[in-house]
Amino acid sequence: MPASSRGVTTTIINWALSRLERTHAWLSRRGQTPLANAAATAPATAALNRSSLVILNWQRPDNVRQILDRYTGYGVVDDILVWNNNRDQPFHYTHPKVRCINSDEFGLNTRWLGCLLARHACVIVHDDDLVCDEATIAGLVAFHYREPDRTYTLHGRNPTPSNEYAVKVDHVTQPTECDVHLTRVTCVNRRWVSRYFDAVSVMGLDIDPARGGGEDIVFSYAMRAATGHRPLVVPGHYEDLIARHALANRNGSQVADRTRIMQACQRWLEQERVDHAC
User: Fold this and answer.
1) Contacts of residue 244, Cβ cutoff 8 Å, sequence gap at least 6
2) CB atoms within 10 A of CB 127
3) N or C: which terminus of the chain carries fewer CB neighbours within 10 A?
4) 182-220 pLDDT, tens per residue?
């Protein structure tokens, strides 16, 4: 598919799914969610402390299968969406918890598109180069249910003293706030995902994996603008997997692009505060 066609298609998908999620949130506030009557007769604990997980695949299907082999056995995860951006190598995994989407290469935005398709408001976005133990995933989900309008992660970043990208906030022993969360393994609230697409559109940003991505930075600031909460880095344990074909070197030559995106988000956040104060 030509790049121009991909761009138009992605924009249309982003708009449609964002509107769908906003409509769902509006109906929820009015107590008019679809199937509300049927839900009233279901056990009250049916969806309690359950989560969806969204993982992207491009060229590491063996890693994804290794992650799925583990996570399909985790009790708090009962919905897993694998978005495969490599249609030349379709990805399939047969398990009642797992759904697979095979598409053209739509880039890192598919991470957030996948969140809008999740069955639960509690969504864990997950990279394909690590695997967590069950206690860590359960811990992220527990944090979400205690305070849903915040993002929880194992890897955070703060601006340097000269406001460049970035000082690491990793391997914490106590929950610690940061300005930016990575998306290696991060728990988000589906309700706020549409704000990411709004922010990308307003700022006119191009999220390019070959230049360091930046969708994690944008989502961090979009969530902060919507809720007033910064991301929270929490304790957890994980095992790194083989990362062949990696496009991003977050602290190497791509740091300049991530600094540019971070600073653009800071300016946008400040303007959002001014607009809301008026």
Assistant:
1) 59, 60
2) 20
3) C
4) 999 999 999 999 999 999 999 999 888 878 889 999 999
